[in-house]
Automatic annotation (TrEMBL):
It comes from the Bacteria. It comes from Petrocella atlantisensis. The lineage of its organism: Bacteria, Bacillati, Bacillota, Clostridia, Lachnospirales. Keywords: Signal. Residues 150-172 are annotated as: Disordered. This is Cell wall-active antibiotics response LiaF-like C-terminal domain-containing protein. Residues 161-172 have a biased composition (Basic and acidic residues). Residues 1-21 form the signal peptide.
Length: 172
């Protein structure tokens, strides 16, 4: 009898603990919504820009893809602020933009594949500021050589009228 009560109390404690963790996470999301333009929690998001004048993203337990590869920057410079916690963020930038990346990575990984050219005053300038915790951030340029257009033909299924019974595999 005592063992059953202990298991019941342990179950209630675990339930209360997970409820408290959910409460803390949702409270954090509310705070982030007051600070960032886009807040993604427990979800995935893909955003492809045609024009870009600046934005800010917060991702909590989420995945975010930000595609600026074909975007026209409004003005000479813009900024992108990123906050990520237990999340992954991928940013693709055009080849002709000058990208400055700076931020804080706390127990997180940053893969910055763009070179900042401080002497370049003619290119559009994007500043990426990040604050990431237990997260991953990848910043890369679009590369025409990496872009491969593949045409996929639909394979006929066995319900397709083009397939005859004689074409179907023999049953063993």
């Amino acid at each position: 009898m005592k063992k059953g009560k202990i298991i019941g109390v342990a179950g209630l404690a675990a339930l209360a603990g997970s409820g408290y963790a959910a409460y803390k996470t949702m409270t954090k999301v509310k705070v982030l919504k007051a600070t960032y333009d886009q807040v993604i929690a427990f979800n995935g998001s893909e955003k492809k820009y045609e024009t870009f004048e600046g934005d800010s993203y917060a991702a909590v337990f989420a995945g975010v893809e930000i595609d600026l590869s074909e975007a026209e920057m409004v003005g000479d410079s813009a900024s992108l602020r990123i906050y990520a916690e237990f999340a992954g963020v991928e940013i693709t930038v055009p080849k002709d933009w000058n990208v400055k990346v700076d931020g804080i990575a706390d127990k997180a990984g940053v893969s910055n594949q763009v070179d900042y050219r401080p002497d370049d005053t003619t290119s559009k300038r994007l500043t990426i500021d990040y604050n990431i915790k237990f997260a991953g951030l990848e910043i890369k340029r679009v590369d025409e050589e990496d872009t491969i257009e593949v045409e996929i033909e639909d394979e006929p299924s066995f319900g397709d009228p083009e397939i005859k019974e004689s074409d179907a595999p023999a049953e063993s």
